[in-house]
From TrEMBL:
Keywords: Methyltransferase, Transferase. GO terms for biological process: methylation. Residues 40-91 form the Methyltransferase type domain. It comes from Azospirillum picis. Gene3D superfamilies: Vaccinia Virus protein VP39. This is SAM-dependent methyltransferase. It comes from the Bacteria. SUPFAM superfamilies: S-adenosyl-L-methionine-dependent methyltransferases. Pfam families: Methyltransf_11. GO terms for molecular function: methyltransferase activity.
Amino acid sequence: MTTIPAPAALRLNLGCGDKLLPGDINVDVAPSRNGATPDHLCDLRRLAPFTDDSANEILAVHVVEHFWRWEVVDVLREWVRVLKPGGTMILECRNLATAWQEFLKDPDGTAGSGPEAQRTMWVLYGDPA
């Protein structure tokens, strides 16, 4: 496997899906989503192409919840391995407790696919767009 050379300010967008960020190395396990192709294909459990202490920033939006619970600590350790000391790791995860609380307030009204479902169904299943 080829090692990715680290630029001066390496930012990784892990599990990018179709949300490609300019200036970041967009990494995903899937070769394409909605026509968007990541910069690099990689199993996020093992960031082998990236060297220790090479990334200034790691962004993972709605990615951690795709791993089994017992895998998460090892996955995060792997990501920290790649992160430079003092670097920034940004994780955005679904808030399932809040989503279910909102859903239970009005199950019929919050189960749709429109904006009224943003805090419930979209959290559980993703934005239908």
